[in-house]
């Protein structure tokens, strides 16, 4: 081959590569050729995986945020069902049933049925980990209701469901409790010793979708759903409480304190072969209902002590509830596994050791200012 021929070949190759680079992403497709999945639901049917792909319509994707398109929410998306033995087979069936490319790169939320058998949940997590391009940072929640029905339910402010979930979980100040869990966090808790998963619960209420509870798991097995009051206690212990209102009887009458900031932390150790954990909750809030203290520091101290005792009792009751269930959503065992691996191994199965763990709770309550205002938000 002559030098001239080599030069021509190199020039042609360079031009070809340049042309490919100028075309952008090689697999890009127009929006009207793609079915963009925004929410993925997972349930089971006769022991098989049942996937539900929530897909917005093209008009919903291109509509203005003000909703000037005029479409109702029910016309803004549709739910595509598919079943299979694995995630890949169910996805293949779904792709075969639509004429557009089923795209998973924009999923905002994963909704798991609370009735998923452990085997099916494990298969779903394994399949999602291998399925590209599912983002590991998507939000995960669970529901006791039929997944298809939940994904078809209108949300507040007439938002698309994916917008509602992503806005709620991305904004710490948009909700009373900040209960976000991402896919990578769920996967991590499923395989890490000494810690169990928890998931926010989305359920159908009289006014649409409600998100004010937490579901507890023992690894891949669903155990129970905390009540709204227990969920507030869980948020206080884990530092996820944003602005709940705490009500408590005090020597001076019923008092309500609205939480401004909350910090929850714990320490853990093994003493004489028995695990111990100490939880500390620090609350700074505002008295919004109760007796007028008029600058009486002694009276204020008595009121705050009464509130602290009430919060302590409810937090301790919640921890004992999780111990009875054999679920450690706080990660006490994980902390021991990190700090004292030999001692942790000597304890045996952590679900049993967690039930025998000695737990203490200390709550500190401070106020920025007092008032005599009606409380806002749910009571604790």
Automatic annotation (TrEMBL):
Residues 213-371 form the Spore germination GerAC-like C-terminal domain. PANTHER family: SPORE GERMINATION PROTEIN B3. It holds the Pfam family Spore_GerAC. Residues 27-203 form the Spore germination protein N-terminal domain. One of its GO terms (biological process) is spore germination. This is Spore germination protein GerKC. Belongs to the GerABKC lipoprotein family. The lineage of its organism: Bacteria, Bacillati, Bacillota, Clostridia, Eubacteriales. Residues 1-23 form the signal peptide. PROSITE patterns: PROKAR_LIPOPROTEIN (PS51257). Gene3D superfamilies: Nutrient germinant receptor protein C, domain 3. One of its GO terms (cellular component) is membrane. NCBIfam families: spore_ger_x_C (TIGR02887). Coiled coil: none annotated. Keywords: Germination, Lipoprotein, Membrane, Palmitate, Signal. It is found in: Membrane. It is a lipid-anchor. Its main location: membrane.
């Amino acid at each position: 081959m002559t030098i001239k021929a080599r030069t021509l070949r190199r020039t042609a190759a360079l031009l070809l590569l340049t042309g490919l680079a100028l075309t952008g992403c090689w697999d890009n497709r127009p929006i009207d050729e793609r079915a963009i999945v925004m929410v993925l639901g997972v349930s089971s049917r006769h022991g098989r995986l049942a996937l539900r792909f929530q897909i917005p319509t093209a008009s919903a994707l291109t509509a203005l945020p003000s909703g000037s398109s005029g479409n109702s929410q029910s016309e803004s998306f549709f739910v595509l069902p598919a079943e299979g033995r694995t995630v890949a087979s169910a996805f293949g069936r779904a792709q075969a049933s639509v004429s557009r490319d089923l795209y998973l790169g924009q999923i905002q939320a994963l909704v798991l049925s609370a009735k998923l058998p452990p085997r099916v949940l494990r298969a779903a997590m394994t399949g999602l980990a291998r399925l590209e391009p599912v983002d590991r940072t998507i939000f995960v929640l669970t529901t006791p209701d039929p997944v298809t029905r939940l994904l078809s339910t209108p949300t507040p402010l007439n938002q698309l469901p994916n917008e509602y979930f992503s806005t709620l979980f991305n904004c710490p100040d948009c909700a009373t409790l900040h209960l976000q869990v991402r896919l990578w966090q769920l996967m991590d808790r499923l395989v890490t010793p000494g810690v169990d998963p928890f998931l926010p619960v989305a359920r159908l209420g009289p006014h649409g979708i409600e998100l004010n509870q937490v579901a507890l798991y023992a690894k891949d097995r669903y155990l129970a759903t905390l009540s709204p009051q227990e969920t507030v206690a869980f948020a206080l212990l884990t530092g996820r409480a944003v602005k709940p209102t705490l009500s408590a009887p005090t020597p001076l009458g019923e008092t309500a304190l609205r939480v401004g900031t909350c910090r929850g932390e714990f320490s853990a150790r093994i003493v004489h072969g028995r695990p111990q954990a100490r939880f500390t909750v620090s609350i700074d809030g505002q008295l919004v209902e109760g007796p007028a203290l008029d600058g009486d520091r002694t009276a204020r101290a008595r009121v705050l002590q009464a509130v602290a005792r009430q919060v302590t009792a409810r937090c301790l009751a919640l921890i004992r509830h999780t111990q009875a269930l054999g679920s450690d959503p706080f990660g006490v065992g994980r902390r021991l596994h990190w700090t004292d691996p030999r001692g942790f191994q000597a304890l045996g199965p952590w679900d049993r050791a967690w039930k025998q763990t000695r737990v203490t709770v200390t709550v500190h309550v401070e106020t920025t200012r007092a008032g005599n205002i009606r409380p806002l938000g749910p009571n604790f």
